[in-house]
């Protein structure tokens, strides 16, 4: 049997970028994957189609997170297309928000970023616990910014992920008696659509070179680099690691 055969996974924000890479890798390892999306149905359907074309199993789950009732809507949609049981939860949906230092961050923008990046995974996970089988896996998306270089223009975003790091460690301690591991994977700069406006194109050649130079490995991360780490954390091979912050920056802050 494949590494995740017979298991069901839910990936929030699973239709694009890092989320899509995670969804596709978990499906390739044998899991049936619920690909969550908030707004882009076409991207979610495309991800499911790609998974199925490769011989995997997947279905879409729609719910807008970061709004009242979002977590309940997600699980209602999930239950309608599954048996209500879950083995792997990946809290990946999030936003960088407006790139502003503290002086330019409005209260409304602060609340929006925290609602999606911190409040949503908290309550999505709370509702997941009655569905998650003993021995299951919870994987949260953090960022290298919580342990590395500070970026004033991403202060609100970094704060949301600092909260996720605390959430990860504390939940690991609570769920350990059930054999459930909880870990956080922390990417640095990844070549995805979210970073396209400043990372792709000839006009951004200098930015790309600067990002490459940050890592001793001398390249920019692809979304599959993160998806492969998440797949390890979702597998039985990671069974003795919990409450951990896993650096997925390619050593950019060494």
From TrEMBL:
GO molecular function, one term: oxidoreductase activity
SUPFAM superfamilies: NAD(P)-binding Rossmann-fold domains (SSF51735)
Gene3D superfamilies in the cross-refs: NAD(P)-binding Rossmann-like Domain
UniProt KW keywords: Oxidoreductase
PANTHER family: OXIDOREDUCTASE, SHORT-CHAIN DEHYDROGENASE/REDUCTASE FAMILY (AFU_ORTHOLOGUE AFUA_5G02870) (PTHR43639), SHORT-CHAIN DEHYDROGENASE_REDUCTASE FAMILY PROTEIN (PTHR43639:SF1)
Family per similarity comment: Belongs to the short-chain dehydrogenases/reductases (SDR) family.
Name of the molecule in the record: SDR family oxidoreductase
Organism annotation: Streptomyces kasugaensis
